[in-house]
Amino acid sequence: MKHPVDLATALRPRPPSPLQEIEDERFARRGVRLLLKRDDLIHTTLPWDTAALGPVELYPPGNKWRKLAPNLRAAAAAGERALLTFGGAYSNHLRATAAAGRLLGFATIGVVRGDELADAPRNPSLARCAADGMRLHFIDRARYRRRADPEVLAELHERFGAFRLIPEGGSNALAAQGCTELGRELRGTADTVAVACGTGGTLAGLAAGLGPGQRALGFPVLKGGRPHFLQETVEELQRAAFGGPRGDWRLEERFHCGGYARRTPELDAFATAFEDRHGLPVERIYVAKLLYGLTTLAEEGAFAPGSTVAAVITGTP
Ligand SMILES: Cc1ncc(COP(=O)(O)O)c(C=O)c1O
């Protein structure tokens, strides 16, 4: 059956997201320039008449777009019509996949961590997924941890039929390849490029796309259970995507503020003040920790005077 949307046009590369310099005395005092790579503003106008498809602002912006687009292209090329992916109850990635599926004509299935949520009222994030047509399937946490096991996947296939599997957070080899474009857009602009990390696909691709002499700095927002877990995950993603290590990157693990979606009074105060000072709405789960960590490092003198730091703004509140 013909795909309902012209995917080649819909999934063509977007123009580079804007780069914006801001004045912040905590950086300026140290002779460091601060740039914001506004991936939250990635061009979202869809190139076809969306009247029948609904509001375009739900189209996934930023790193979600960069990670999903190559997976959707591969699914379309293989004639696949359904996407299955995984996430927690507040997953940005589940929402992005649901929105992309609705707009681009894929059926979507979201496997959600926590079977206790099945009968609870839907939170706004899961309600949005359902409104975008995603079938939600709740599984218990022990099973969720084993989501990559052949036995669990076989069960999902039995229940839902054929689908393209996209891992939690959308991070796989194709996603990392998609994020190289982010690095390429930043070539020659900054000495250090910083990004918040969840599942690591964005950092894996960003680092691979940067030019010589540039380094990438990842700020994990999760408190890893196992030491160096994310380090190994990013290395593995780079092996799968590029055949081996790429680029100069490292993780700065001091700024998870207690773990995923955890906040501290200092983090909140910092984010509110940053919003007031720069008029930038600060997404709290990822972007706030990135900016908080970077600013602390600048105040500690971690960046050489005369150097430039770019922070990738991956999402909106
Ligand atoms: C706003 C935002 N920033 C950063 C990330 C981290 O991306 P990754 O999971 O590729 O490390 C995510 C998750 O996809 C996100 O939603």
Structure described in brief:
This is D-cysteine desulfhydrase. The chain has 317 residues and is of the alpha/beta class.
Structural overview:
There is one protein chain. The chain is of the alpha/beta class and 317 residues long. It has two domains: 7-44 and 174-312, Rossmann fold (3-Layer(aba) Sandwich); 81-162, Rossmann fold (3-Layer(aba) Sandwich). It has twelve helices and ten strands. It is globular and about 60 Å long. The chain starts with 6 loop residues before the first helix and ends in a 5-residue tail after the last strand. Residues 45-58 have low confidence and may be disordered. It binds pyridoxal-5'-phosphate (PLP). The site of pyridoxal-5'-phosphate has 17 residues, from helix 4, strand 7 and helix 9. Belongs to the ACC deaminase/D-cysteine desulfhydrase family.
List keywords for this structure.
317 residues, alpha/beta, Rossmann fold, 2 domains, 6-stranded mixed β-sheet, 4-stranded parallel β-sheet, 10 strands, globular, binds pyridoxal-5'-phosphate
Would you spell out the secondary-structure blueprint of this structure?
Layout: H1 7-10, E1 19-22, H2 25-28, E2 33-37, H3 62-77, E3 82-87, H4 92-104, E4 107-113, H5 124-131, E5 135-139, H6 141-145, H7 150-160, E6 164-166, H8 173-185, E7 192-197, H9 201-209, E8 215-220, H10 229-242, E9 248-251, H11 265-278, H12 287-299, E10 308-312
Parallel strand pairs: 2-10, 3-4, 3-6, 4-5, 7-8, 7-10, 8-9
Antiparallel strand pairs: 1-2
The structure holds pyridoxal-5'-phosphate.
The site of pyridoxal-5'-phosphate has 17 residues, from helix 4, strand 7 and helix 9.
